[in-house]
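DATA SHEET
Item: assembly model
Revision: 1
Owner: S.N.
Input lines:
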Amino acid sequence: MEYKVEAHRIMSISLGKIYNSRVQRGGIKLHKNLLVSLVLRSARQVYLRDYYGGICLSAQQAREWCEGEYMDSEQDRLVPGSTESLPESDGQSEVAVDKQEPSIVVESHAALDVESEARGEQDHAENGVLDSGCSELKTPESPEASPTCEVSNVVTTISSNCISGPPPSNPKQATETPNDCQTDSESVEENSHEPIVPHTCTNRKRSADDSELTDSLPKRTKVMSPTLISKNDEKKAETEEMDTSNVSSLITIFGSSFSGLLSSEDGAQPDSEAEDSDSGQICCDQMLKNLNPWSTAIVAF
Amino acid sequence: MLKYTFKGVGGGNDFQWCFSQVKGAIDEDVAEADIISTVEFNYSGDLLATGDKGGRVVIFQREQESKNRPHSRGEYNVYSTFQSHEPEFDYLKSLEIEEKINKIRWLPQQNAAHSLLSTNDKTIKLWKISQRDKRAEGYNLKDEDGRLRDPFRITSLRVPVLLPMDRMVEASPRRIFANAHTYHINSISVNSDHETYLSADDLRVNLWHLEITDRSFNIVDIKPANMEELTEVITAAECHPHQCNVFVYSSSKGTIRLCDMRAAALCDRQSKFFEEPEDPSSRSFFSEIISSISDVKFSHSGRYMMTRDYLSVKVWDLNMENRPVETYQVHEYLRSKLCSLYENDCIFDKFECCWNGSDSAIMTGSYNNFFRMFDRNTRRDITLEASRENSKPRAILKARKVSTGGKRKKDEISVDSLDFNKKILHTAWHPKENVIAVAATNNLYIFQDKIN
């Protein structure tokens, strides 16, 4: 949940920067806006993964309550409780997990496998790298910290095939959590019942540090335009669904500006757009107004 | 081969930096136009030029060492001040063009006058700075006031004589190189042939002849056919110090391309491609931003080049493309603060870097008016501060330290106390001596080594 908020915040800030660059003296700075758009893309990808992880969560929970015992036995297999890497059991449990996965979201199981394995490989490499930030992890609710730092890259490559987030229970992540985040094994097992949303540890570190830095860093870019601010407030007060619909609107809008950003995530839209409410649409329009200048600017260049 | 005479940067027994001068207003209220945007010594080091956001250029000249104090180095005093660029308006795009001086580069001196190139976002100008310290008196056709004499009243001829006068320094724009860049110019670099120079903007590099203003050659063009596919921009470019056919340009993706102009008219295909593979463990939202190279500088020898990205300085051997030979962390403690630095725009700050005359040391700036020096031979490094508190004449600069751990030692400053508004982006090192110029917002500090 924290990551979603963080990613969302970064996206809002990025959009604010792009918006403000229009009115800056000296014209739009191509370099800066390119970098901001890269950050925006990364944040959006993480945000979307969180969202789709959330979808898996709600569906998974529903199935769990129906299939209690069956689930437990599966989970036992998935959580060896050790810190070793178990690529073989990964393969097996992946298959088991796939069977349980809600049919709503998943397009391609094969793609999911690839994604998990790719992340698994990365987890190997990155195990134990991120320490201090992760030690702040307390709530059992928080998603497992996959120390994968190539989430956005993975998503980029995978997103063309698959729209959903990670499989609900990734044993690799479950085993690695104690390593990286020093949560106790109990909460690990607890968490393994819930879908695990991978996220970069660095984000958690960042949000922890941010609270420290709030006072000390004097210059804050107060970049929110009135429309953006009202939209953000609105967003925070809204439900998850609303947030997601705004994001999906963003994606649609950005689709016209950055072809690389969008890739094939258009396929993801039907789900979220089905949940679109009216106020989501209004936000979308506001965003549209704000973002058009950027696409105009790009074309002008 | 340059002899290693540099005794050390790390505050060792032999070597220490001390304050020499500071230029600029003391006022706490800094006018935006006074913010220094570029600093550059000329080839001899006798002249030091600064450009500011208001489009002005100020040139300081080193006074001759006085006979009374033969061992004290001369001071830098204002030699010339002129308005190089004015704000302009592009009517076609409805955009204002900032007058901020992005770069100044000196031309090699060919006669009594000095010449430099100064550029803003769109236009490069060649300025000639000449001085007059004599004037002619005793004209035949006009009297001392300048009024024309009545020709019938002239009964004899005389030869005008040259008399000394107060030194007058004039700067005049000799060439204006305009309308060649669609995007914002970030670099200019004079070629070793002393006839040509290159200018680079976000997507293109142009080659000019110093005498010809109405055309330039485009030698690099990375603009994609579809702008929506843009993934990287050019961030800096420089000519090789000795080989007039070689130049490099750096990109926002952290790569450097070396090009040979003999290979093709359009150098889109590089001769060498320098890139260090990214460390996957340090990936974050902001990895791309912090890997963007803000400055690239060849060593004086021409064998190495140095690049500056947000957190580090890297020295590359031109013969090895797959990784740098040296990497120096400038302010690694900022890695965990990247999100906040992104919010307040500090992450976009473009730090420059420079070599000393013998290529044995490098220098770059940081925040809180700190700047860092790295000795390549001893591997020692030092952090110094440019501040008014340390501005007593000949005061030795104390090494500063940022505490990263939990416990803060005495005299250390914690990361959270750093003033991110006080950034040192521009520094310059005298080409021959241990004299450095450090631009701290609107003040220019000059430091030199301690006279033993």
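QC remark: The helical segments of chain B are 287-291, 338-343.
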